[in-house]
């Protein structure tokens, strides 16, 4: 089983369905870069009373939940749910959306708990399901970018 440094689908040695493999370092590198960009945007847009850098340092660990743990939500779909059922395309769409919604809940809660644990006082309270919606929208955007590059994605059905 040989994988590239970027990762990708590889055929299992037993001849079963292809599974996605990527090194932890590659995953960490990519998700940290995404979290850096998201944290900077969030820090510039969110109204705050403290300095930019203090706010940024507090926001980064909370925002890091979405790209890093979200990667593993996607892997759960790709390597377990998708290959366990011989679904039609419409069933895979519903399964993937459910995986994103259900996986977004612990991501949103983890983000919120981290935000509070680091001493932030939220100015407003979001409903518990905001993480689910945010994660699904983020996945829609990511898969649209993948589709534009001609890579397998939710939008082109070559998952």
Note down, in words, how this protein is organized.
The chain is mainly alpha-helical and 159 residues long. The chain has one domain (8-148). It has helices at residues 24-45, 52-84, 89-117, 130-148, and strands spanning 8-10, 19-21. A two-stranded antiparallel ribbon has the order 1-2. Strand 1 and strand 2 form a beta hairpin. Helix 1 (24-45) packs across helix 2 and helix 3 (89-117) packs across helix 4 (130-148). The protein is elongated, with a radius of gyration of 17 Å. Residues 1-5 have low confidence and may be disordered.
Main traits of this protein?
159 residues, mainly alpha, 4% strand, elongated
Ranges with pLDDT <50 over ≥5 residues? 1-5
| Series of secondary-structure elements, N-terminal to C-terminal | EEHHHH
Characterize the largest beta sheet: strand count, sense, and whether it forms a barrel.
2 strands, antiparallel
Q: How much of the polypeptide forms β-strand, as a percent range?
A: under 5%
Précis, in short:
Helix content is 65%, strand content 4%. With 159 residues, the chain is mostly helical.
Helix-strand blueprint:
Layout: E1 8-10, E2 19-21, H1 24-45, H2 52-84, H3 89-117, H4 130-148
Antiparallel strand pairs: 1-2
Helix pairs in contact: 1-2, 2-3, 3-4
């Amino acid at each position: 089983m040989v994988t590239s440094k970027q990762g990708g689908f590889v055929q299992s040695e037993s001849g079963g369905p292809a599974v996605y493999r990527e090194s932890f370092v590659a995953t960490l590198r990519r998700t940290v870069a995404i979290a850096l960009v998201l944290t900077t945007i969030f820090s510039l847009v969110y109204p705050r009373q403290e300095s930019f850098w203090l706010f940024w340092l507090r926001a980064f660990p909370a925002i890091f939940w979405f790209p890093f743990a979200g990667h593993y939500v996607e892997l759960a779909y790709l390597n377990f749910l998708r290959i366990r059922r011989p679904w039609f395309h419409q069933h895979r769409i519903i399964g993937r959306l459910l995986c994103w919604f259900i996986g977004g809940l612990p991501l949103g809660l983890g983000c919120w708990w981290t935000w509070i644990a680091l001493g932030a006082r939220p100015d407003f309270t979001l409903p518990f399901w905001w993480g689910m919606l945010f994660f699904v929208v983020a996945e829609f955007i990511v898969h649209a970018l993948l589709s534009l590059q001609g890579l397998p994605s939710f939008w082109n059905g070559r998952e």
